[in-house]
Predict the 3D structure of the following.
Amino acid sequence: MQFTGFPKEGLSFLSNIIINNSKEWLDDHKEEYEKYIVAPNKAYVEEMGEHLQILVPHIHAIPKINKSLFRIYRDARFHRLDPIKERIGIIFWQGATHRMQSSSFYMHYDPFEVFVAAGIRNFKPPLLATYREYIKNDTKRESLHHILEELKRKGYSVPEPQFKRYPAGLDKEDTYAYLYLYLYGAMYAYTTFPPDETFQSEAIIERNFKIYEDMLDLQQWVYELTCVEEIIPEDLY
């Protein structure tokens, strides 16, 4: 299937989930789900994957559920009343670790907002420990600071630091520059925009590619972090 944009019908489908959130409803509308959500998402992964190979030759762009596409079902143990997701996530990741602990280019969308990001959106404890050790290197820490400042200068956002206290054993009296980086529990940049006419056309490929190109330095910094060691085996997820 050639990618021609994310259709309005898909956005309407997601709006309907908000007021009809049940497995039974989704079962009754499986044909719409496959036509307006799954098919264009797969086509997008294939098209964007080809573009991203220009930036990252070995990027993983796999148009399958639990690969570049996320399941539409939430974990039933914690979402008995809202088992269906109202937003759709798509990820392209680099490296051999689990996709969610690999440096990635990411997007999710719902009827109201498109979120586009690069990096890792949540460090699991082993990766957090590796990150904190990694940025003890002055050069790595300074590089990350300047990358983040440049992205902010271009109008992109970075998350707020997750922690209020510095990690145990860190000597704050040392002459560390950019000490604030130790307070992060994730490392990514992002931007948002409404699901407009561009989103509903093939032009979203060029828009998102430009965003990912702008964020490449951060994505590569995070990738190098994950290469320090194989952080978390796949079977732990």
